[in-house]
Specification:
With about 180 residues, the protein is mainly α. The chain is about 60% helix and about 5% strand. The chain has two domains: about 1-105, Rossmann fold (3-Layer(aba) Sandwich), CATH 3.40.50; about 105-175, P-loop containing nucleotide triphosphate hydrolases (Rossmann fold, 3-Layer(aba) Sandwich), CATH 3.40.50.300.
Amino acid sequence: MVAADEVAAAVLALPEVIARIRDRFGPGVLGPDGGIDRAALAERVFAAEDRESARRDLESWTHPPVRARILERLLEARAAGVPCVVLDVPLLLENDAAHGLVRHCDALVYVDVDPETRDLRAQRTRGWGPGEVARREAAQIPPEEKRDRADLVIPNHGSQEDLEKAVAEARQRLGLA
């Protein structure tokens, strides 16, 4: 699996990226170790009066190297004969014109969960405040459109066991079981 969030964390640790972010958003986005405090950065970007410009600036420094690394990992996996590579890329559809990763996908899978549950899960697992998911999603393609564009939808409204069953069924439908 290639997880965009992990790749993005590595890109955010690059000295040249840290310097640009510090210069644009101030030293308050740095943690005690001098690295990027992702929560502080997100708060600054999404709360800024010029949030569209702030987001575009951040994305212009981070998305190109993230895209390049994702594509590199995907091509390495294919060259090694890996039969299935999962790309976990939250903004896959939003930024496809720039990265072109969708054309490398045999199938698009959308994991569906209602907005309230998404919000509660993000609060619990990421420490986000209430409403943060909706605020971020406002800058993205609506979940309904992502669901509609998917080749396969996996429901994630129930228990972990329900999800595992749905994933097994999806793997079977995709010929991966």
